[in-house]
Each structure stands twice: as C-alpha cells, then as structure tokens.
Amino acid sequence: MKARAKFLIGSGIIIVTLISLAYVGFTQSKTYYHTISELGSLHGMSLHQRMRVSGNVRAGSINRASGRVDFVLEEQGKALPISYTGRDPLPDTFKDGAQALVEGRLTPDGRFVAEQVQAKCASKYEATPNQTSGAPQPGQTSNRSNVMSPGS
Amino acid sequence: MDIFGSFALLLAFLAAVYAFAAGIAGILTRRTLLAKSAHNAGMAVFALVTLAVASLEYYFFTDNFSMAYVAAHSNRALPAFYKFAALWAGQEGSLLFWSWLLSIYVFSALFVNRNKHPELMPYAGVVMAGVQIFFLTLNNFVASPFNVMGGADASGTLRLATLGDGHGLNPLLQYPEMVIHPPMLYLGYTGFTIPFAFALAALLGRYPGEKWIHITRSWTMIAWCFQSVGILLGAHWAYAVLGWGGYWGWDPVENASFLPWITGTAFLHSVMMQEKRGMMKVWNIWLVFTTFMLCILGTLLTRSGVISSVHAFAQSSIGNWFVAFLALVFIVCFWAYWLNRDYLRSDNQLDSLVSRESSFLFNNLVLLAACFAVLWGTLFPVLSEWVVDSKISVGPTFFNKVIIPIALFLLFLTGVGPLLAWRKTSYDALRRNFAMPVMGGVLAGIVAFIFGFREIYSLICLILSVFVTLTIASEFYRGARVIAARDGTNILSAVGELTMRNTRRYGGYIVHFGMVLIFIGIAGQAFNRDIQMEMAPGQTLKIGPYTILCQNFDRVANNNYESERASLEVFRDGRSEMMLYPERRFFLASQVTETMVAIQTSPLRDLYVVYAGRSPETDKPVIHAYLNPLVKWIWFGGIVLVLGTGLALLPSRRAALVLRPAAEKSWGDAVAKDASAIGAIAHRSDAHD
User: Fold this and answer.
1) pTM, whole model, 2 decimals?
2) Is the ipTM of this complex over 0.85?
3) Which of A151, B306, B359, B581 has fewest C-beta within 10 Å?
4) Is residue B466 one of the residues assigned to a domain?
5) In this complex, which of B170, B402, B613 lies closest to A21 when CB atoms are compared?
C-alpha cells in the first residue's frame, strides 16, 4: 500500500501542475467568436477580449495604406471597420466580396484591429481553397457543362 | 456505367450484414459451418469493395465527367498520378477509400487467423463486420461516390448531364506527399479497428489467457506505425506546401489524428503490465476501446463541420451518423465491460515506486493527461457554446503550455523505464545503470549552456535526449558484450544477434531512439528565425549565415497552371551555394493561387523561402525567408521509428541455450551477475513471442 500511496501523491502533483499550466495557457490564448451584431451589445471586460469576427468584405472598401490595410466587414446588414496591421501579406483569396475571418481586438473608437486575416473566396463552386471537398450536387450544372439526354 | 460500382458496393454491404448475422447465429448455435460461412462472407467484402474502388478509379482515368464525384475532383489536364489520388479528395470517395482499407485489414485479420483461435475468431468477425456495416451504409445510402450528374426534369424523366471538363483537384492536394499522406493516416485510423475487434471479442467471449493480448498488440503496432507515418507526412506536407514555415499548428484535424496515436501509445506500453504481471486489465481494455472511439471522433470532427479547420470537409449532415455510431460503440463497449467485469480482475498490486510498473503507470497517466488536454482544447469551442453560450477557442499557447512539459516527462521516462526492474529496483542497480547516462546528459547540458544555449525547454530536451540515447546505447552494448564474450564474435555482429533474439525489446529501443530524434528536431524550433522583405532584382537579404540575392522574376506556364517565379541565389561566406525558386502557381481548372515553397534542407538547418506575393503599395515582390534549425531530424526520426516498429513486429530468433533464472530480474541486474548472465539472455530471448 505504501507504494500505491506514493504513486497517488506523485500523480496528484503531476495533475495539479498540468491543470495550472492549462489554466495559464487557456487565459493567455482564449479567443471569443462574435458576430458583428453581437459586438454592439458587449460591455465591460468582454470588450477587451481577444476575439474572432467573420463577415464578408464590402466591395470597394479595401484601402491599402502604409503599414496597414483598412476594409469593412459586413454581416446581416451590420458593418465593422477593420484595420489589419499584421506583417504577412494578405491571402490571395482576400478580395471584394470574400468571406473573411479576422482575429484581434476592438479599440475604444469602435474600430477592430486585426492581427490575422483568413479569407475564403466566393469562387465558382462552393469549395473554399482551404477545404478538400466541393462536390457539386448532382443536378447542378455549371457554365462549362452541356446537358445531354440519356443515351447520347 | 455507374451500375457496376454501385452494385458491387451494395453486395459488399449485404456480405457484411451476412457476416454479422451469421456470425452471431454461429456463436449462439455453436454450428461451425455457420461460423465458417460468416468468416468467408467477411473476406468476400474485401473483393467487392475492391471492385467498387476499381470502378471509380476507372471513371477518373477515362475522364468520365458525367460522374458527379469525378467532375468535382478531376480534370483532363490533371497528371495521372493525381487522378489516382483524386479518389480520396472528397467526402464520398474518401469514405469509400476508408471502407476499402478497412476491408483489407479485416481480410488480413481473418485470413491470418483462419485456422487459429476457434473460440475467439467468430466474435472478432462479428465486431469487424459490425464496423464494416456502418461504413458501407454510409457508402451506399448516405454519401455514394457513384452519383451521376443530372436530375429529373419537369416531366419526371431523369436527364443526365456531363461536363466538358472537371473542376479539377484542389491545388493544395497536388503535391506528391498528398498521394501518400491520406492513405497512411487512413491505414492508421482503420487499423485500430482490428485491435478493437479482438479486445471486444475476448471480453464478450471471456477468452481465457492472455493470447488475445498478443494478437491485439501486433495489430496495434501496425496501426500505430501507420498513424505515426501519417501524422509525420501530414506535418511535412503542411511544412512544404502551406508556406507558413511551420509543421504543426494544433489545428483540430491535426489534433484529431494525434488523439488515437496518444492512446495507442499508452496501450502499447501498459499492455506489458498485463502480460508480465497481470495488472491493469480494465485499463487496457478501455484504452483499446477509447483508441477506436477517438478514431471515429476524429472522422466526425473532420467531416461534420462541427469545428472549423483548414482540413475540414464541407459542412454536411453526415456528422449525425458518426455521432450515432460513436454512441452505439460506447454503449456496446460499456455493456460488454459491465457483463464481464469479473473477467478483468487484476492479479497483482504495485510493489514499489521505483519499478518498471510504476514507470509504466506514470507513462500512462501523463499520456492520458495529454490526450485529455488535446481533446479538451479541440472541443472547447463546442463545449463552451453549450455551457456558456459563447464560442471560445484556445490557441497554440494552451496546447504548448501543457504538452511540452508532458512530452519532456515522457522523454525522461523513455530513458528511465526500460532500465528499471519489475517489482522493485535496488539502489545499487540504479547507480550502476544510470550513472553514465546521467553524467553524459548533464555534461551535454553544461557544454550547451556555456555556448549560450538559454532556452529552458530546449536545454532540458537536449539533456534528456543525450541521457536517453546513452541508456539505449548502454542497453545494446551490455547485452552485446555478453554475447560477444560467449560466442567470440565482434561486438557489432553481437548487436545484430542480440536484436534478433528479442526483436520486440530492441525494436522498441529503436522506436525510442526515433522519438529522441523527433524531439531534437522539435526542440530546434526555439531557434527559428525569419525575415520578410520586398525585393527587386539585384537586392539582397541576410538571414543567419546566408545572403540571398534576388536575380530576377519570371513566368512559367503549362496546361495545368501558370506560375510566377523568383530566382534567388544563395551565398554563404561570400561563395555561391545554390539557387532557390519559390513560386506562386495559378491553377487553371480550379482558379486558385497556391504558394510553392523553396526549401534548401540540411541536417543542421533548413533555409525555407516563400514568394509571398507582390506588395500592394510598391508592387515589388515580397520574399519571406525562414531559417529553421534541425527540422530534418523530425523526418529522419520518423524513418527510424518505422524501422524500429518493423523490427519489433518480426518474430524473435530462439536462442540455443535456455537456462531459466530463479526470478525475473532487470536486464541490468541479470547481466551484472556474470554467472547467470548468459542464461538470463537466453531466457529473455524467449520471454516474448
């Protein structure tokens, strides 16, 4: 029984250590998903959280200035001005009308400062460049198809 | 033309249902003829699914764009190599591929054991057929790969449609590794079905003895090896294709493949406790069950759209099927366990904290903790949405904070565990076995510290890596020295002899060494550097010891893609070393641009260069260069790991001389006693099968 007790104590120490590490890691990296309409109703602490917001890039809103790129995300009629300040060039898929996911923080003046931008293009079929499936449904035809009757 | 494939698939489903039903009937009525026919039906599934796969591949190679799946994932200009791989590029085909690999495993397991274990095989056959029924249901009725283009018109007659050309294969998948990465990973995922089937069969049939453990262990090693290779190839693909300079990002789908690997690893270790000491039976059986369920969960995460990920398939309702199957599997497992829990009573208790048993217990404890942490972090957005109605995700910081200490602790155990004796290790044995490796490790740490090595985790990793390598080397050396002294051979051939006498033990050490190499490679990450710069022809960039000169930019085109390419000359110490050509390719069929990374790899460091596109302000090309030390060690470690697993699967050579010492002793203890040493080695060689 003595060995068993020692083992349990050792396990306890390991588990407590890991839980505290997990807690620290969690508080440092947690990111909240919000919709643009939800942002208006946030207050207090939750305004300063790191968050992810998604929406569509408003056509013509992309404005490239030195060191940053400004654009507007839209979702269900609500708009959110974004400033991207990251170092990496924006993905090719980032263009007017693209679906974008931004990660960063909200500033007091209502502008969202993004450190990361991911974008999916609204391409000719529903596939997104980051996804491995984009099967058109049976029956769906595209501009390159030619409809044939059975047997031909 | 689609009739052939669909029909083969339907027959496969019926054969699996027959194997399941006749198998149960055979067990209940104890009629061997019925059991035999169930067995044959199980093997027939393989032939039928193979026909379905061959038929789909035929459509790909004949560019039959009236097939919805072919039209969505191929085009005329696609190289033949990728037409073959397009089979698993989408939801329906990859599920068919899954069923096919599963049927290969089931066939092999049934075939290898066709005249063995008459009490166990019928149960195992039923479980395997049950799993096959689920996947074949999906293939036949939920996500058929044989749907045709077209639909019913106004009058209700079916009108077929065809495309002039297909939509093409996702460019991210047009990379040689993508042809082998998914099959390897799927071979891992599906492979865990076999150990699961044997474990559940042994429990249901209350199969006496530990024989099922041997069968389960071998199949687990096979699946585990494929899973390891699949994960590493995926990491390498991410590294070489995605162009962000890293290989692992704690993406949900990466995590999903990592989870069964963790529990599989835990099982491969804890199963030894059951073989040698009759302990942890409940734990082991649940580890096998959990591994299988995590495989299903992984598939669920990838295919349901529950969690957003770079790999996820398009959202679909197929996830519900996996949830239902997962629930069913859990209920069956729990029911089987509850009915037969007395069958799993432990024979022994833990004797000492400084023993092999306790090192395995700690190994399992932290592996399970790692599994739990990864699962928790992956599912957190879903869980938090349920509980507090707000979707919260956790980033790599969370995973790294928890997993790095666990991994280092495991590395420590890798060195310590094999040298500890079963039951209890004496202080003398500890000193004898560990003095040299500990000194070596500490010495390496001091030297590294003097040379300015300050990253704490990497420093610990270095010390432990040297320590573990030395313990492994000393194990080989000590055993080989005894054989060399007895047979009068040289030490190298004695190492070979030693290894072949106990392939499982020494193969295991080689796997451990492969893991050490992987750890070293990962530790190199702490010293990564990168720089991003706009470069016009003639400009230079300095990173580490390299100077990169931009020579020019040009365009290349073929009928699959158009590419924009940078020609960079790399200098080191003023001498020209090589040319690198990072590219951006625009794929015509799918209208997508992809980055092609240029990597100059060497054992010490990788120079990784990305053509990141043109700067929006100046229209100058942007070059992003990374210097990643030691990455190559990871891939090399993977090769060592595969060799080690292969070796461990070989049967051990029997020794001529068998003298059995009185009691089980640690390897080190036994060898130290000169008189009984030879006998101990001879004995050890037949201690494992």
Assistant:
1) 0.86
2) no
3) A151
4) yes
5) B402
